[in-house]
Amino acid sequence: MTTLDTEALVIGSGAGGAVTAASLAAAGREVTVVEEGPAVDPDADAPFSLDEMVAKYRHRGLSAALGSPGIAYAEGRCVGGSTEINSGLYHRLPPELAEEWRVRYRIDEFTPAVLDRYAETIERDLSVSKLTGAPPPASAVLERGAAKLGWRAVEFPRVFRHDDGLHRDVKQTMARTLIPRAVDAGAQLLADSCVTRLVTRGGRVVEARGRRRHPGGRDEPLSIRAEHVFVCGGAIQTPALLQRSGVRHRIGGGLKLHPTIKIAARFPQRLNHDEVPMHRVTEFAPNLTIGGSASGRGHVALALADSTAEYADALADWERVTVYYAAIRSDGDGRVLAVPGIRSPIVTYRLTESDMSRLARGLVHLGEVLLAAGAQELYPSVVGGAVVRRVDELGTWWDSVTRSRTNLMTVHLTSTVRIGEERDLTGADSFGRVWGYENLRVNDASLLPDAPGVNPQAAIMAIASRNADQFLSAS
Amino acid sequence: MRWFERQLAAHLTRPDPDEAEPLEGADYVDGALRVMPMHLRVGILTESFAFGAGRLLLGRAGRRDATTADRVIARCRTSRIDVVRQYVRVFESLVLFAENELLPEAAA
Fold first, then answer.
1. Helix, strand or coil for residue A72?
2. Does a structural domain hold residue B92?
C-alpha cells in the first residue's frame, strides 16, 4: 500500500486542479496532486486522432448523458485533464453572467472586476493571444458567411504559444504549463492514481482512499492523509466522488451543459483540417453560438453518418468537408448519480421544449451562414434530415429537429456543486468549501452556477485561482 | 465484442460479414466497448443479445441474408425509439471513426 501524508491534496489535474496545485505550491505549501489518468507526452499524438482518444479520453470518448434524446459527451482522463483534449479557445466569463450569478446565488467577492484580475494573470501565464496572420480557411468560412449576412463574428483568442523549434503554435495545456510549474515548486504528482472514497469524521476529511497503478500494471491500495482536500475532477467525477463519500447536500443535481447540433458542410475548395476554427458567429450569443469542430477524416465520417443520408460520395471528397456546430445555452438540467457497485456515475439530462426549439433555430442559422460562405451541401446531424443545397431548402429542418431524430453532443459540463451563500441552492460556499466540511473544497467546473455559453476553461481557471488565493489568505 | 456485435460491426463496413476478412479497427471497437461506462455497456449487451437471438431465429427460418441485415440496420438507424437508434449509432460511430482514422491519407 502507498501511504502518504500531505498538507494539501488536489484530486484531478485539469484546469481547476492545475491552478490550485500551482498556486498552493508557489506559496510554499506541501501539495500532492493525484490524477486518475496517465501522464502522456503532449506531443505524442495528433490532436483529436484515434490514438489521442485511446490515450487521453475517459472511456475513449464514449460517454453519454441519458435522456430524450441522449447527449454524447467527452472528458479528458490524463495529466492535464480536459485541457489536453479541448480546442484551446479562450473566452472570459461574460461580466453580465458573473453579475447575474453573484446576485442569484449570493456569491461573495465575485464581481467582474475581481474575476478579470485573475483572468489577466492566467492570460499572461498561458500566452492567450489571437492569430498573427490570416485565419485558416475553415475558420475564414465562418467570418465570410457572417459578413455576407451582416451578422457578428469574432475571432476567439486561444491558449496557444508559437514554438520556434516546432514551427507551429502549440496549445498551452495544463500538462505543459501549470502542472510542471507546480512540480517545480515542490508539488508531488501521482499519475495513474485514483481516489475512490473520502473518509470523513466530525465534519472533516481524515483520509482519501483509492488505488495506484505502477508502471507494468501492478495495482496497490492508496491512502492519503491531508490537512486540506481539493476535489477537482470536473463536473461529472467530482460529484460522483463526493456522493460515494457520503457528501450529498446539493451535490450532483443541476448539471448544465451546452447541447450541440452539427452540420457536415461540403465546399467547392479544400479546407484545412489540422486545427479547430477560431472564429465564432456571436450574433445570437450567449444563448446560441455557432463555431467549427475537429474535422479529421474520422470526424467528418461521423458527422456525415449522423444525417443517415447517402454520404459515400461526400466522404470520398472529405478534404472539402468540414464539421460546424450550433451550441445553445439550455434551460434544462441534469443529474450525476453515483450508484453503489457501478464504477461510472449515471448521468442524465433533460432538455426542455424551448431547448429543442433553440436547437432547431441554431441548425437553420448554421445552415444559413455556411451557405452564405459558399457551402454546396449540408448534412445535418438529424436522422432523416434533408441534405440541403439551397437557402430555400433550410425550412425543411424546422420540423426535423425532434427528440427522436436529433443526434447531440457536448464537451462543456458544469454546475454540479454550485457556489454561493444560498445554502438551499448551492453545494459549497462562495469559495468552494463544501457545506458541512471544514477541510473539503471543490475547485473545478462543478462550481460554475450555470453553463456560460462559451468554452468554460477561462471561467474555471479564474474562479479556481480566486478560490486558491482566498484559501491561502485564510489558512 | 460478442458474436452479434462483431457481425454488426463487420456488416457496417462490408455487405457480407460471414465472408469478410478481419474488420479493420476491430481492436479499437473492442477496446472502446470494454472501457465504456458499465451501465451503458449493460444496455448495449442486452440489445446485442436480443438482436443476436433474432438473427439466429431468422437463420433457422432460412431468411437470414445480407439484404435482411441491411433492412434491419436501416430500420434501427431511423428508429423513433432512442435506445434502438443509439445502439446502431454507437457501432456505426466506432467503426467509421476507426476505419477512417486508420486510413493512411487520414494522417496525411
1. strand
2. yes
Structural domain contains residue B14: no
Sorting pLDDT into bands at 50, 70 and 90, what band is B104?
Answer: low
C-alpha cell, A431: 469559495
Residue B19 lies in a domain: no
What's the CA gap between A21 and A281, in Å, rounded?
35
B52 or A354, greater pLDDT: A354
A361: number of CA atoms within 13 Å, CB side? 14
Which of B39, B101, B106 faces A344 most closely, judged by CB atoms?
B39
Considering only residues A273 and B12, tell me which one the structure prediction assigns the higher pLDDT: A273
Count CA atoms closer than 13 A to A86's CA, side-chain side.
27
Please, where are the H alpha helices in A152-215? 178-184
CB contact under 8 A, B32 and A302: no
CB atoms within 10 A of CB B18: 11
Number of domains in chain B: 1
What pTM was computed for the model? 0.94
**Number of C-alpha atoms within 13 angstroms, CB side, residue A312?**
2
Inter-chain residue contact B82 with A346, CB threshold 8 Å: no
Residues A27, A181: Cα–Cα separation, whole Å: 12
Does the active-site annotation cover A299?
Answer: no
Compute the distance between CA of residue A135 and CA of residue A141 in angstroms, rounded to an integer. Answer: 9
Residue A228 in grid coordinates: 486540506
The alpha carbon of residue B78 is apart from the nearest alpha carbon of chain A, in Å, by: 6
Phi/psi of residue A142, nearest 5 degrees: -65, -40
Q: Residue B69: how many CB atoms within 10 A of its CB?
A: 19
Please answer whether residues A192 and A401 qualify as being in contact, where contact means their C-beta atoms are separated by less than 8 angstroms.
no
CA angle in degrees (0–180, nearest 5) for A220-A225-A228: 130
Q: What was the pLDDT predicted at A271?
A: 92
Residues A310-322 as b or e (16 or more Cβ within 10 Å = b): ebeebbeebbbbb
For the beta carbon of residue B53, count every other beta carbon within 10 angstroms: 11
CA A332 to chain centre: 18
Across A41-62, b (16+ Cβ under 10 Å) vs e yields: ebeebebbbbebbbbbbbbbbb
What is the Cα A157 distance to its own chain's centre? 16
Whole-number Å distance between alpha carbons of A246 and A244: 5
Q: For residue B37, what are the domain limits?
A: 3-9+24-101
Is this prediction's ipTM beyond 0.95? no
**C-alpha cell read off for A214:** 505502477
Distance CA A182, CA A184 (A): 5
Query: Which amino acid type is present at position A108?
Result: D
Q: What is the pLDDT of residues A20-45, one digit of tens each?
A: 999 999 999 999 999 999 999 988 89
pLDDT at B64 (0 to 100): 65
Q: What would the pLDDT profile of A195-231 be if each residue is shown by its tens digit?
A: 999 999 999 999 999 999 988 889 999 999 999 999 9
Asked whether residue B108 is assigned to any structural domain, the reply reads: no
- Is A125 exposed, middle or buried (CB count within 10 Å of its CB: 0-12, 13-18, 19+)? middle
> Which residue in chain A is spatially nearest to B37 when comparing CA positions?
A344
Contact B40 A62 (CB under 8 A): yes
Q: What length does chain A have?
A: 475
Give residue B71's pLDDT. 77
Q: Would you say residue B67 has pLDDT above 90?
A: no
